[in-house]
Protein 1
Amino acid sequence: MELIKLGAEGPEVRTLQQRLQAAGYDVAVDGDFGPNTEAAVKQLQRDRNLVDDGIVGPKTMAALLGRDTRHLLSQTDIESAAEQLGVDIATVHAVKAVESLGEGFLDDGRPVILYERHIMRRRLAKNGFGGDEIRALCTRYPGLVNKQTGGYRGYAAEHFRLNNARKIDDTSALESCSWGLFQIMGYHWDRLGFESAQAFVNAMTLNEGNQLYAFVGFVQSDPDMLAALQAKDWAGFARRYNGPGYRKNQYDTRLARAYARYQEQEQAA
């Protein structure tokens, strides 16, 4: 669904207001997403322990429809991350808006992943597979083990690829996926303080709060990245987090704009 937020008008806003009213929130049904509707949405988000940004997306709509949202990111998670990173809440919101997928779980409840076949090749070597054995696997299963990136199927189909890769080597396969909201690679499990790749995956499978925790740990493990974030040096942070091609996707500019937006919202609250 498209996000519904302050300034929106039309039948989708009217439907939202009707549902808010039916849930007991004091809001007029006029099809205009004004300050009163935004206040009602934020109250709903606080009541369900969601991130209270006043924006209606799939998570807020799920809460409004009475679905279980306990595995989703909460305002408490955001506040805890800000404290651990030594930044303000607007900074965490900005990074989440720009650097995360927005959804850490598929509709079927499994975490969002992306399986990387070229990483699988590297992890097999790291985990004791010989060169001849790896070359044979590349020939036999090019969609799972390959020098080249690619082969992506997206969404639930990535779990199908992962399950097949686990038959080759379980640990290497788990390490070869990016996991959750911030798509942290599984091979970072040791860097993040987990006992094993499986322990990392278990945490990513539980809730989005753990997925945010993995991001916090990833940033904390790189002093230069952490310092850049604390200084709001968006270019410095983006260069370390996204790599040298960050300018192509304007990550630094998008982070700065998102921060300004969320800071303004906090000041107006």
Protein 2
Amino acid sequence: MQIKKLFLQNFRNYENERFDFSEGLNVLFGKNAQGKTNCAEAVFYLCTGASLRIRHDKQLIRIGAESARITAEAENRYGRVTIEADIYENKREIRVNGSKIAKNADLMGHINSVFFSPGELRLIQDGPDERRRFMNISISQTSPAYYTALLRYNKILDQRNTLLKNHDVSMVLDTLPVWDEQLCKYAAVIIKKRAEFLEKLAPHAKDYHAFLTDGAEELIVRPDRKYEGDETEIAKTLMRRLENNYEKDLRLGFTTVGPHRDDLDVLIGGTDAKAYASQGQTRTAALALKLAEVEIFKSLSGESPILVLDDVMSELDLPRRKKLLKCVSGIQTVLTCTHAERVLYGAECNKIRIENGRIKA
């Protein structure tokens, strides 16, 4: 799986540029604030239909322009694929091989991507929202069923939370079981898929972490809550938990149990990384999780995803930089940095210099 060509028109600070990517390591280099990360963002957007940096698509449009377009000519194991995204002030249109898609679920899987930047340290340091986001983005790219269940679950959850704020307690208690039956149905899909994902992720993350640290520390990743059985049994368990929390939910005005509240345990050397890991430990653990994510994509889709490494080299010491270059061998990688010569150590690559939103020879 790889992108051959990427076209950016009025996207961020790019007016009209074409990127020709090789099948291996592609290095976008130049001074800070020139547009390197914007290009990396465009790759991820065409893979997932969303940006990791902004909430509203209109922020992607170049200042002074009315619309933006991103186009990728790519290849996956089924052949050539072209993905186009036209972004306007209040809407967007995404096409796959010329056909307009109605929903994001139809985009997922054509090109898979794993994105890592210094901001991904939030995955370890911040609250459970970041770790759930990590799982949601990753699983959705290979499982349309998960993505659909997640959308429906969140919609019903919003409706349930609105209901809990109603002052007619008798009416609320009569209505909750109806919502909860649907909520648990979609929650069971989410919980089961996450469990399968973590079962695959944990050993790969442990191995990559051991490689990056020369075995100095052990990384353990596991769910903070275990659910037993198949989807039907999980739904029944969650239904009981919801019923047991009716009084609490009514008092607080929101739903206190479910996959929207679940978290991951991340341990380094047996210690909770969220509370005690240093910056260096956090950085290495987050990188190990992302490299493990690449392995999951390989196993599920039969081919490597596109790996986007945004300004990651500046955060690593020399030994870890060299180890990372070994890890990405054989994977199409888009890597951004300020000084290519300082991070490549002779590695064969396709260098692209960026200056003020333009490709320079």
